[in-house]
Amino acid sequence: MPTFTYNDLQFSLEARGDRWDLSCARPDGSRGLAGAGLFPGLSEGDALARANALARTICPVGIRTVGPDVNHPNTIGDLKIVGPDVTHPNFIYWDKESVSCPREL
Question: What are the C-alpha distances in Å from 27 to residues 5, 8, 9, 24?
């Protein structure tokens, strides 16, 4: 089972038939499933490279995704990831769990 670390998170890639499951270690020691049935038919090396790219997309460093941009999704293989709508920014208050839309741009 190949593993890699990205953004202080430990990811593991596990083979399930001809597909791969990507999991991530949680702070309490349990594992969370980040994706199942990924990368059909790929070798371990190719699947690991794609899993690393997927982790970089779904867990960007220092960015909190707010407001989906459904018109411009990122695709990794068959997976579509909808990121933030940067043309309509929301401001994040880092000292509390809330966001607000700007009154003026």
Answer: 14, 11, 9, 10
Q: Within this chain, do residues 82 and 96 fall inside the same structural domain, yes or no?
A: yes
Q: Are residues 102 and 81 both part of a single domain?
A: yes
pLDDT digits (tens, 9 = 90+) for 38-69: 999 999 999 999 999 998 888 766 544 455 66
Which residue range forms the structural domain that includes residue 48?
Answer: 1-62
Q: Which residue has the tokens 């001809």?
A: 18
Nearest one of 54, 90, 88 to 71, comparing CA atoms: 88
Same-domain pairing of 81 and 40: no
The DSSP output letter for 76 is E
Tokens coding 30 = 């349990």
pTM for this prediction: 0.56
Q: Where are the alpha helices (DSSP H) in the chain?
A: 44-58
Asked if residue 70 and residue 57 are part of one domain, the reply reads no
